[in-house]
């Protein structure tokens, strides 16, 4: 049984959110529509809904990520859940406690949801297989495999600007090879019926057989960016430079960095996205990142509503009629 | 099946008298999704209220989340005015247990502190489980627990009363 299957109940409803792969367009549009209803909460006097009042959400981060953890934390708090942040890298892992022992201990604190970030692919799925049935597990990034909530906030942001996926050209530029964001985003865009998905990268930063995911490959941004509606720049992780996959940051910027000149190749109303944190002058020029077509900060705002939607849907699908216990 | 328009006419008359009696000159109407919004829009036109209509979707405020989860058809709540100090009229189609109204009141107060809130419903079918009563009622029906009153619309607005199988 794959991650795709373990996250659905027999009626096909989302119990966990581990990967976008294998979900239906209906699953995705339900999340996007629910997120749309939750977006306004941030504008109100009381930025809180009572939906998850009395529930406990545990952020289980085996890999540091302040930004992602913060948006999950805020999402849970805006739904009135209690939030526990556990940075495992600095606690039990160093004491030699096994992952399962850690899980059992946290379960014993009567928690309802685990948000998992781990440097190994498949970690969130492993946890979903071993938790008690009332607990929902969300993948906040596992290795090179998936980052499904980021993909959902990306398509949410795209839909707010350009709702017509069947007539949309999207270019994803940069380090595709190491990017779980790119992988999840390609799946989500395909499920929503996006007309054309392009990946633009040097050969050394492309995974083998990337075409099989349903993306067109370009090595030259001069061609890859032409007439696209959306440009998604990926973060270039500096440690990749040491693996001899790349020349220098400066050379990467010269060949692939998103400058105003390169952006001019895209459609005049194209939007620019980036999952953050951005490396100014490496994958993106400051004038573009801060320019009028950048929706990078909007992505951050939207990430909260999208995560609130996924939390309330998955926990809601664990709901049981009165009298029926697990 | 019953045409809802005469009931809305009745509601409009009651609401007009009530607003006059209370000296409320500039009320704002807020419909509860979905039926309440249809009725509120008709009341707004009949009373010639200039202020835009508010719309509430109380899905995230329901008290049965742990039993039924999230309504996948939830829509955004929109209150295109400042709630503080305003006289609000909450409008719904069917008043039954009172739980929807409780949820709506909780949601309203997360937007601000209104001066007052009135409740106007098309049908009061009895069966209250909470201490909530309407100020304006289009019709009172005594239905049994296995009967259901439902408003269909938006055009035409009709009240359907049917036997539920469960």
Shape of chain A: globular
Question: SSE string of chain A, helix = H, strand = E?
Answer: HHEHEHHEHEHEHEEHEHHHEHH
Which consecutive residue ranges of chain A, at least 5 long each, have pLDDT under 50?
A: none
Percent range of helical residues of chain A: 25-40%
Structural class of chain B: alpha/beta
The oligomerization state is heterodimer
The fraction of residues in strands of chain B falls at 25-35%
| Contiguous runs where pLDDT drops below 50 for at least 5 residues of chain B | none
Rg of chain B, alpha carbons:
15 Å
Strand count, sense and barrel status of the largest sheet of chain A are:
5 strands, parallel
- Number of extended strands of chain A: 9
Strand arrangement across the biggest beta sheet of chain B: 3-2-4-5-6
Q: Please tell me the overall pLDDT of chain B.
A: 95
Question: Strand portion of chain A, in percent?
Answer: 5-15%
Main sheet properties of chain B? 5 strands, parallel
First-to-last CA distance of chain B: 21 Å
**What is the number of helices of chain A?**
14
- Main β-sheet, spatial strand arrangement of chain A: 7-6-5-8-9
Mean pLDDT of chain A: 92
Classify the secondary structure makeup of chain A into a structural class: alpha/beta
- What is the overall silhouette of chain B? globular
Describe the structure.
The complex is a heterodimer of chains A (326) and B (166). Chain A is of the alpha/beta class. Helices cover 38% and strands 14% of the residues of chain A. Chain A has a five-stranded parallel sheet with strand order 7-6-5-8-9. In chain A, helix 2 packs across helix 14. Chain A is globular, with a radius of gyration of 20 Å. The mean pLDDT of chain A is 92. Chain B is α/β, with parallel strands linked by helices and 166 residues long. Chain B has four helices and eight strands, in the order E-H-E-H-E-H-E-H-E-E-E-E. Chain B has helices at residues 5-22, 35-47, 65-68, 99-109; strands at 2-3, 28-32, 54-56, 87-95, 116-124, 136-140, 147-152, 158-163. The mean pLDDT of chain B is 95. Classes of the chains: A alpha/beta (326), B alpha/beta (166). At the A-B interface, helix 2 and helix 14 of A face helix 3 of B.
């Amino acid at each position: 049984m794959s991650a795709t299957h373990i996250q659905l109940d027999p009626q096909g409803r989302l119990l966990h959110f581990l990967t976008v792969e294998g979900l239906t367009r209906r699953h995705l549009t339900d999340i996007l529509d629910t997120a749309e209803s939750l977006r306004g909460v941030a504008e109100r006097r009381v930025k809180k809904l009572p939906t998850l009042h009395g529930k406990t959400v545990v952020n289980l981060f085996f890999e540091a990520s302040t930004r992602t953890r913060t948006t999950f934390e805020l999402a849970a708090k805006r739904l009135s859940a209690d939030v526990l942040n556990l940075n495992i890298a600095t606690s039990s892992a160093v004491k030699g406690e096994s992952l399962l022992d850690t899980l059992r201990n946290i379960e014993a604190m009567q928690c309802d949801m685990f948000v998992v970030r781990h440097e190994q692919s498949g970690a969130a799925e492993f946890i979903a297989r071993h938790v008690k049935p009332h607990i929902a597990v969300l993948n906040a990034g596992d290795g090179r495999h998936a980052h499904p909530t980021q993909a959902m906030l990306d398509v949410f942001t795209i839909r707010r600007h350009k709702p017509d996926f069947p007539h949309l050209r999207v270019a994803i530029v940069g380090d595709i090879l190491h990017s779980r964001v790119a992988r999840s985003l390609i799946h989500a865009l395909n499920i929503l019926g996006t007309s054309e998905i392009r990946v633009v990268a040097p050969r050394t930063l492309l995974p083998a057989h990337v075409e099989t995911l349903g993306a067109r490959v370009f090595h030259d941004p001069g061609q890859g960016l032409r007439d696209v509606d959306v440009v998604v720049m990926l973060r270039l992780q500096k440690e990749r430079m040491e693996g001899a996959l790349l020349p220098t940051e400066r050379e990467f910027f010269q060949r692939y960095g998103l400058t105003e000149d390169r952006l001019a190749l895209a459609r005049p109303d194209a939007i620019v996205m980036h999952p953050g944190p951005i490396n100014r002058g490496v994958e993106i020029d400051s004038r573009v990142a801060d320019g009028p077509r950048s929706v990078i900060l909007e992505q951050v705002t939207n990430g909260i509503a999208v995560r609130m939607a996924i939390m309330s849907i998955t926990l809601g699908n664990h709901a049981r009629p009165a009298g029926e216990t697990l | 099946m019953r045409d809802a328009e005469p009931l809305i006419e009745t509601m409009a008359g009651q609401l007009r008298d009530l607003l006059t009696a209370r000296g409320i000159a500039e009320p704002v109407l807020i419909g509860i999704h979905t039926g309440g919004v249809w009725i509120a829009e008709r009341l707004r036109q009949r009373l010639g209220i200039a202020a835009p209509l508010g719309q509430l979707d109380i899905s995230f405020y329901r008290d049965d989340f742990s039993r039924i989860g999230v309504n996948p058809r939830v829509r955004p709540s929109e209150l295109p005015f400042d709630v503080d100090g305003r006289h609000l009229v909450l409008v719904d189609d069917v008043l039954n247990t009172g739980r929807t109204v409780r949820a709506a009141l909780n949601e309203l107060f997360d937007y601000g502190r209104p001066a007052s809130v009135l409740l106007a419903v098309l049908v009061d079918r009895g069966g209250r489980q909470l201490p909530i009563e309407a100020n304006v009622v289009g019709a009172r029906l005594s239905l049994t627990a296995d009967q259901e009153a439902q408003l269909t619309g938006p055009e035409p607005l009709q009240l359907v009363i049917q036997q539920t199988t469960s």
